[in-house]
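Check this.
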Amino acid sequence: MLLFHLLAVLATAALVVVILRDRRARALSRLQVHQLSQDNHRLTSENNRLRYDTVTGLLLRESWTTTASQMLPHLAHPAVLFVDVNKLKRVNDTISHRAGDRLLREIADRLRAQLGEQALLGRVGGDEFVALLDLPASWPATVQSAVDACQVEVAGRTCGAAFGLARPVDIVGRESPTAAAHAASRRLDRLMHAADLAMKRAKHRCRTENLATALELYGEKDPLVPEHLDHDPHARPRDAAVPAGDQHLQF
């Protein structure tokens, strides 16, 4: 009888140990799941911080370039639109960097609204945006609407942007019409370089003609795009620009 009682006590104790171990295991499992969730959230936040601009929410240059390079071969009518915001440095220096950030956000939002969800937008420099587009049949009106929408008033000053657009046909039209030339014209780096050249002419027009916004297409007025590019087309100092205006955003 005593032996039976002792065995019962031992069995009960063993069961208690098993239950306690199970509870500890479940508690540890919940803790591990919570820790993994926190780690995943932290890694996602860090990844987003590295991929996306914190001011505008647009892709940063490296992420934009990677994604655009993957998309480009699948677009029927590709084009690169290069955008340089006018007067950003002046706004930062004379009003505040907060006002400058709001100017950037407003122009980014207007570009999103006008160009649509299919446009791949990125911020590739302090005052520079770029978009990879698959142009619709009505593309001149679509692009011009985006240009016109980017006149923004900041504390009584009308700001805007200079736009340069380049298509493969614009590049290959100035080169020998060979299969190799057609293929090279669809390279992202050459399209970006051509759009940047066109944007510089638009920037010049903004200054000399007192315009808030201007659009230029890559063409005969621009230098030929080198077949081999060994420099960053965005590596240049930021410019200040000019007045004029229409749509207003008050800060």
The first helix runs from residue 2 to 51. The helical segments are 2-51, 61-71, 88-94, 97-115, 139-149, 168-172, 179-185, 188-208.
